[in-house]
Amino acid sequence: MSESKSFQLGTIGALGLSVVSSVSIVICNKALMSYLGFIFATTLTSWHLLVTFCSLHVALWMKLFEHKPFDPRTVIGFGILNGISIGLLNLSLGFNSVGFYQMTKLAIIPCTVLLETLYLSKRFSRSVQFSLAILLLGVGIATVTDLQLNILGSVLSLLAVVTTCIAQIMTNTIQKKYKVSSTQLLYQSCPYQAMTLFISGPFLDKFLTNQNVFTFKYTPDVLAFIVLSCLISVSVNFSTFLVIGRTSPVTYQVLGHLKTCLVLAFGYVLLHDPFSWRNIIGIVIALVGMVSYSYYCNHENQKKTIEPTATPEAEEGESEPLTHAENGAAAFNDIAVSRAPERKSERFMHA
């Protein structure tokens, strides 16, 4: 019982850290891009990952965690896939309207549920599915405005959804399969993610913004916000892997939509962004879905706990889908940001 309580407290701490750090970085990035004009999203994300790796390397040197190497092909493939998913999310944002991009983000949850059901044999009860539907409806009402379709944008969105879902599922399964912690996985995969974006970022940002990151005028204010964003990103990246490892990709996405609602609210309160009754109604519906999701997941977890199991194998198979409190941009959706100056204030609302 003490181990169970300790795990629950650790999970709550991971969720709280993820929410606070993600909302903080979105507000920081919004100030950086909307008000200071630094709109190079992919390049900024590569800097985030480089700073994260350097921070973890210092932590390893201080013996705060143990380095645990495992299958290098898995690490390299996982790191590159995460980098590609971030690039595709930014391309999707560049070639689609804000509304369609938000629909792309909403599609990640049902796609993740489908993939986990088909390939991992996880089961999601009707109550959980209904809660997720309410959540997506609320977030859709609050965030989706214009829906403009085009073939290239639709293809990029589809690829972004699939790669993000696979990357987040891998974040969970790799930690369990190789028995590595979130810190160990992040430390080993971070260089490959960073290099993927560090090489492609300047070209991708120039293509999307028609501006060059190397010729941008770096004022002291811009540099200060870039440093602050990079420091916050260490917590964002760490908490992302921690949450997905302790819960699941689906729960991480539910948490992501909670962040979206909080960003909308904080944007209105702190930055005086436009806010309508539609936003309020959508947020309320989304919160109902989140509370319902949490309730049914906890209820099913408790039910699984008290049910006797015939064999250890059966116990493991039954409990795994609900390790997540139902058991998360790529994993870095929180820091993938906007491209067009004329819409950058809107496009921050996707953390």
Automatic annotation (TrEMBL):
Keywords: Membrane, Transmembrane, Transmembrane helix. It is found in: Membrane. Residues 309-329 are annotated as: Disordered. The keyword Hydrolase does not apply. The chain crosses the membrane at residues 12-32, 38-62, 74-93, 127-145, 151-173, 224-245, 277-296. The keyword Cell division does not apply. It is a multi-pass membrane protein. Pfam families: TPT. One of its GO terms (cellular component) is membrane. Its main location: membrane. It comes from the Eukaryota. InterPro entries: EmrE-like, Sugar_P_trans_dom, TPT_transporter. Residues 21-294 form the Sugar phosphate transporter domain. This is UDP-xylose transporter 3-like. The lineage of its organism: Eukaryota, Viridiplantae, Streptophyta, Embryophyta, Tracheophyta. The gene is LOC113725282.
